[in-house]
Write a structure and sequence with these properties.
alpha+beta, binds zinc ion, globular, single chain, two-stranded antiparallel sheet
Amino acid sequence: MRRFLRPDLAPKVISALARKQKRTNTNRAAGALKIDAAWNSARKTKPLKAVLAALKSMVGQRERCMYCGDSHGTDIDHFWPKAIYPQRMFCWPNLLLSCADCGRIKGTDFPLQNGEPLLVDPTAEDPWLFLDFDPATGNLVPRFDPATARWDEKGENTVQVLELDRREALAAGYQKTHRRLTDLVEAAVQDTSPSPAALKTALRNTPCAHSPLPPPLP
Ligand SMILES: [Zn+2]
């Protein structure tokens, strides 16, 4: 999981989303809201196609899922699940790109603490403040804070809800990338005439399909 920067949408897309949200809220107040039908019908419209394109632009050419970074991101996921929070169904900051697996696993599981999500939103915060990588297993694990001797609660919930410690293909991908990076750094350390520029290029060119590490060097 890595941080994604959310671009601004075109004003006409923002307005269209606002209109859809207003209609949703009105129907909800009238007890006439059919959430799945409303969403499925909206998905076929131009504004939602623009949203999908914007989300895909955030993740790069491989169009990886924002949660697991592994599988192909094909779906628009509602960070605050639309089944419980339809009042956020068309809110741009609530829309993320996910793979079918993450969408299914996450479902309506959405732990809160004092009204704040106990799940990492990779479009709003740096996942590495809450998560860590365990090279021994290839799993993402909650970050451990030695000062409090506790595992980060948001990290813990994120791992649990998205089952990040039970995804074999994901762990294998993370381990592979970790090995590649470790080899590169070890070779650079042993180099008698090291070239920082060459190392930077090599790190940049390492296929980080699974993005186990923070974003590429600037
Ligand atoms: Zn995923």
